[in-house]
Amino acid sequence: MLVLGIETSCDETAAAVLKDGDTLLSNVINDQFGIHSKYGGIVPELAGRSHVDRVHRVIDDAVNKAGVQLRDIDLIAVTMGPGLVGSLLVGLNTAKGLSYGLNTPMVGVNHLEGHLLAIFLQKKIQFPFIALIVSGGHTDLYRASDFGQYKLLGRTRDDAAGESFDKVGKMLGIPYPGGPAIERLARKGNGKTHKFPRAYLEKGSLDFSFSGLKTSVRTFLNRRGRDDRVVSTDEDISAGFQDAVIDVLVDKLIGACEKEKISRVVVTGGVAANGALREAVRNAAQSHGLEASFPEKIFCTDNAAMIACAGHHKFIRNKNLSADSRTLDAKANLPLE
Question: What is the rounded CA–CA span in Å between residue 311 and residue 5?
Answer without folding.
Answer: 8
